[in-house]
Structures are given as C-alpha cells and as structure tokens.
Amino acid sequence: MLMTETSFLPMDLFRLMGNPQNLGAANLTAIAQFDTAWCRDQRGLVLCTFLDGMALADKVRLSRRSLVAVFAVALGAAAVVSGVVQVWLPYHVGALKMYDYAYLGPTVWTFDEAKRMLAGEREALPWHALPNALAGLALTAAMIAARARTLAFPLHPLAYALCGSWTMMVLWFPCVAAWLAKVIVLRWGGMEAYRVARHAALGMVLGECAMAVLWSVPGMVWNLPAPSFPWA
Questions:
Q1: Could you read off the pLDDT of 158-178 as tens digits, one per residue?
Q2: Does the pLDDT at position 230 exceed 70?
Q3: Residue 167 · residue 4 · CB < 8 Å
Q4: Helix, strand, or coil here: 154?
Q5: Which of 131 and 47 is assigned the larger pLDDT?
Q6: Which residues lie below 8 Å from residue 143, measured CB to CB, with a gap of 6+?
Q7: Residue 153: CB partners within 8 Å, gap ≥ 6?
Q8: DSSP, residue by residue, 85-144
Q9: Are the C-beta atoms of residues 36 and 83 closer than 8 Å to each other?
Q10: Residue pair 143/53 in contact by the 8 Å Cβ criterion
C-alpha cells in the first residue's frame, strides 16, 4: 500500500459511458490537471496515507474525526511545498539530468490525451470494455458481501483492485514472502512468536527507509547519484 499505482483514471470511466469531447475544452483541461496531480503514479497515493493515519488512530484510541484538520493541513502543505520544489528543482539542476519519467511520463500523458480529444481524435474502445468493467464491479461487490457474511473469507476486494497494477507486477514476490513468513510464524509459533517477529519485520522496513534517506544526503551534499530503486 505504500506504493500504489492506479490502473485506470476517472476519464477512463467516463469514456465507457459517453464521448469525452462533450465535456468541452475547459473541463478536459481541468480533468487532465486533476488526473496528473492526484490520480496517476504518485509512488504513494494520498488515500493510503489517510488510511494508515486512521489505523494508527484506532490503535491509540484517537477519534478519527479529529484527524480531518490534520489531513487538511498536511495536504495543503504538501501541495505547496511539492509544487515549489518541482518548479525550482528542474530549473536549478536541469530536468534532462534528472529522472526523465517524472517529466516525460504521467505529467505529459494526460495532457496529450486531452489534446487528442480536443483535436477530434477519439480512440475506439473494444466491445468488451464495458462488460468487463461491469463484471469487475459485480465481482468486487460480491467479495465485499462475502467478507461481511463469511468468517475468514480469504479474498479481499482491495487486493483484486490492485492485482492488475504495475506495482503488484513488480513487488508481488516481497508480498508473497511476507505473507508466507506470517503464516509460518503464526502456525508454529502462535501469537507470542508473532508479536516478537513483528518487531523484526518493522525494523527491516524502517532500516530500508532509513538507508534510502541516509544515502540520499551524501548525494545532495556532494552531487552524487543515490542508489536506484530495484524496479525489477
């Protein structure tokens, strides 16, 4: 959940029902900006952070409602700081010297699509697009109902939604390894062993994040490339 990439955009849902050109130039441009800023490949969606915050609030018995103001302030501050940095950094360092996907990928794709729609180009969807979407909606609703009515139902609708995303294609093995380790610890060690092993697992996560930060600091000071993330 720390790195979730959406497999479709709001515009994709609209295309199933009608012609996007009917929205007009102003709406298409606004939707392209919204999709780029909030819905496409953020390496960590905002909603995931909110869910983590509410889960932590439950652990310490803090009212979820009290987090609304915190979320609003954090979201506003993050938008301002990231916006300033993403304008200043490419001009200061040079976007061509940086990670090109961040400047030639999702930030451009949605605007290119809006431009094609404004020019009158319309990509025809396959005949099975709408039936597949309705089938996925029905299957998700069925899993939600089954989890609400059946004890220990093994399938989760959120996993179904994420299974076709790029993130799971790359990180499926660590997820399987973590699940297998949890099953082994719980089956042969019980809850006591699970509580002990949980600290080690959290320590590994913290260690990896700490190393990413510590290796980035010398890179910024001495202008050296930081170790890259193993995408595959």
A1: 888 878 777 788 788 888 998
A2: no
A3: yes
A4: coil
A5: 131
A6: 153, 155, 156, 157, 160
A7: 143, 146, 147
A8: HHHHHIIIIIGGGS-THHHHSHHHHHHHHHHHHHTT--PPPPTTHHHHHHHHHHHHHHHH
A9: no
A10: no
